[in-house]
Structure formats: C-alpha cells, structure tokens
Automatic annotation (TrEMBL):
InterPro entries associated with the record: DUF1329
Keywords of the record: Signal
Keyword S-adenosyl-L-methionine: no
Protein's name in the database: DUF1329 domain-containing protein
Signal sequence region: 1-23
C-alpha cells in the first residue's frame, strides 16, 4: 500500500508537471470531496493493512469534563496505551515509515530518543462551513505570480486536490486555525546540557481569511494580523511585535513593527521574513520556520512527491497537560518521550529546493503534511552542503472546541549543535489558547495601538 500511495503521488506530479500554470480542478474531480475523499481532500478509506482506519468525521464533540475554550484540554483517548515503542535498537524495523530527520534523531540520541506508537485515530475535523468553503475553493482557486499567492478562495483549504507542490504548501499556510485567538505561552531554547530559560509572551492573532462573514474581495491582501507582547524575563518584558501577514508577499511584503519598551518607540521591522533569525530562539529558528513554515514560498521550487505512510505525532494531549511540568517535559536533546504520542498517518511529501540565485540558509526543505488537516507534521531541512541540519516537529492534537487539528507544541531540533527549541508551552499557565474572545476590528492591529498597549 505504501508503494501504491507513492506511485499515485508521483503520477500526479508527473502528469501535472506544469501545474503552477494550472487553474482549479474540474467539477468532476471536486465532486470526490466528501465522497471518496474527505472534505479536505484526504483519502477517506483506510489502508489495506488496516493500520490506518477509515475517516468517519473525526472528533465532533469535546470529551466529558471539558468546560470550554481556555481550559487545558482533557485527553479524549485516556485509555489508549502504546502498541509498541520505536527505539534505536529496533529502528531498522520501522525505517520505511520514518523521515530522514526522525531517523537522525535516533542516531543523535540513541540512549534516550524514543517514539511510542499508538493506534491511529483519524481525529481530524473542522466546522461544516469550513468544509463547504473548501469544496467551493476546489473549482475557483488559482495561483498568482507563479505561486507567490492565490486568488478566488476564502474560508477553507484553497487547493484540497493539489496539482503541484506549491499548492500543497499554500494549503498548510492557509489551513484553518480558528478566527481570533488569544493565549499566553512560553518559548524556550534547550541547551546541550539540558538547561533552559523561558521567554513568556501574550499572543493574539486574527485570521481575516477565516472571518465567517468575509470574502476574498474583503481581504485586501491581508491573511492575518499577529500581535505579541513579551511578559518575561525582565530584560525583555514590555517589548512587542506586530505583523500584518500578506497573501502575496512578493507583490506586497509582510509588514512588521517592533515596540522597544526602553525607548518607548515603534519601529518598522522590514526584515522579519525568510531566514532572518528570531532573537528569542537563540539562533535555532528562522522567521519562516514559525508555524513550521510561513510566508512567501518564492525562494524554492516545490515538488509534489506523493503520499507516504509515516509515524507522526498525533493526538498529543499529554505534552501540554497542566499536570506535566516543564522540568519533566524538557529533557536533554528532546522532549520526554513518555509524554508523546505517535500514530501512523498518510502524509503528502513536498520537496522545496532553493532556486538558483536565491538566498536562504536551508538549501532544501522536505515537508510531510498530514493529509487530514494539511498541517505540516515534520519538516527535514538541509544546509548549504546538502546535509541534514534541522528537524522541525509539530506535536498535533485536535482543538475540539472549534474543532481543528493544529500543533500543541512546535519543536525545532538542530542536529549539529545538539540543541532544540520549543514554542507554545503553556502547561504551567492557568489557561491555554482561547478561541472564544470577541473579534476586534482592524484598528486593534494598527502600529499606533501597539504603542498604546506597549506603554501599559
């Protein structure tokens, strides 16, 4: 079955080699959505081996005991136990279903890195209005500027039946993550000896692309607004960042501003894109690593390789449990495997190769996109010599209050320095991400508002 999926994907890629010039799919192909395909374009059927089940709608309601948005998420599968655990000792048995980056982590940390594997639960789900919009997008969405943006899609996955690699990348960038979110969370660089120091911030984002009453015509090239205020440590507290994320970043680059609490000044941040290093990440994350991958895709040639069955993090409720302390979760080299959960899922494999003459610290990126959500689960990234350098891993779970599948934690491993970086830690916060706050207007995300709020 694995070989069949890969051959199917390769056939698609070869048949549509000129895919970046193609428009939306035919009505006949779009009619497969919700029938043989899920509304997001995944194969509804399970695999021949029975190790991946049929998709039957995913999680459609919160588990007992959940009181609402902002509460830490109870595990909807508390009785599940690992079927087996992949270790360095039995790695050869499972290599066919792992990425090169995952294999490299076993080699880097042979005595401690493990992957507990659970039964596959296709828990991915989304609101019906997002499904409806996705079906509409399938026959209207089109790429712009050679793939640097897209048009005539709104409120759903733009290309549920992708014709090429850049469409698949846009599906990840434009996937559903709610409309307005508020959260307080920490990020941390874990050093080679296991030491770490938290940087905590208040974050807010308004996804204009998913305003229920909006439309593509209303976007004015703005996909979302993002606002972050640093709360600690004291030396960074009061600083803030504001981002206006554009849909076509070649036509109109991302707009960003920073607020310096010491100077009480707002300044443009024109270089917050591509491989610009993020200060709080201690050199372990680039601007376009955020959210696994974001921003303009124009510096890479993207190839849709096909589908593959891979063990990826899925239904990871323990890694963000309020009962798990950071000191127990953050181990030398990697997260504590005891709190992680991996499942066998089909993923789209997309390879990005740096264009001739383009500049970036990564010469190649291989993305593994969960077929049920379009969320990047793993990304292997290579240096200028073509050697595997960094491995990004998203520990996915279903935020069933919406619902949507999104990352619980994003972890960025540097295989050369043997350090790693973690985003979105909120285990020790009294609340978690809140999707229920009133949606502000656009003026809330203006640079002047950044100055006013930064002085509070």
């Amino acid at each position: 079955m694995l070989k069949k999926h890969m051959l199917t994907g390769v056939a698609i890629a070869l048949t549509l080699a000129a895919g970046q010039a193609l428009a939306a799919v035919s009505p006949a192909d779009a009619a497969k959505l919700g029938n043989t395909l899920t509304p997001f374009g995944a194969e509804k059927a399970g695999n021949a081996a029975g190790t991946i089940p049929e998709w039957t709608g995913g999680i459609t309601k919160a588990p007992a005991g959940y009181k609402g948005s902002g509460q830490h998420h109870p595990d909807p599968f508390p009785g599940d136990k690992p079927l087996f655990t992949i270790t360095k000792a039995n790695l050869d048995q499972y290599k066919a279903n792992l990425t090169p980056g995952q294999i490299a982590l076993f080699q880097a940390y042979p005595d401690s890195y493990q992957m507990p594997v659970y039964q596959t639960r296709r828990s991915g789900s989304a609101p019906q209005w997002v499904y409806d919009n996705t079906v509409k997008n399938a026959t209207t969405a089109r790429l712009l500027d050679g793939g640097n943006g897209f048009a005539d899609a709104y409120g759903g996955i733009p290309f549920p039946i992708p014709q090429n690699g850049v469409e698949a990348v846009w599906n990840h960038i434009a996937r559903y993550r709610g409309t307005y979110i508020v959260r307080r969370a920490s990020e941390v660089a874990v050093q080679r000896n296991g030491s770490f120091s938290l940087v905590t911030s208040q974050q807010e984002a308004l996804f204009k692309y998913y305003l229920p009453k909006g439309s593509y015509a209303d976007l004015n090239n703005i996909m979302f607004y993002y606002l972050s205020f640093t709360k600690s440590p004291a030396r960074l507290a009061g600083g803030a960042t504001l981002v206006h994320e554009t849909l076509d970043q070649v036509k109109e680059p991302r707009q960003a501003w920073g607020y310096n609490a010491g100077q009480r000044r707002v300044r443009r941040a024109p270089n917050l894109a591509y491989d610009t290093p993020i200060a709080a990440a201690d050199g372990l994350r680039t601007a376009d690593d955020t959210d696994m991958f974001n921003g303009a895709p124009d510096r890479y040639d993207w190839k849709l390789v096909g589908k593959k069955e891979i063990y990826i993090p899925y239904n990871n409720y323990q890694v963000t449990s309020s009962e798990v302390k950071y000191k127990d979760l953050l181990q030398v080299g990697h997260l504590n495997p005891a709190f992680t959960r991996n499942e066998l899922h089909r993923v789209w494999v997309v390879e990005g190769t740096l264009k001739s003459g383009a500049r970036h610290i990564y010469s190649k990126r291989t993305m593994y996109l969960d077929e049920d959500s379009w969320q990047a689960a793993v990304i292997d990234q290579y240096d200028g010599r073509g050697e595997l350098w960094r491995v990004s891993i998203a520990y996915l779970k279903n935020y069933y209050e919406l619902p949507t599948t999104w990352s619980a934690l994003d972890v960025f491993h540097d295989l050369q320095s043997r350090r790693y970086y973690v985003q979105n830690l909120d285990n020790e916060e009294p609340t978690t991400i809140d999707f229920s706050q009133a949606i502000p207007d656009d003026g809330y995300f203006k640079p002047a508002a950044l100055r006013r709020r930064g002085t509070r």
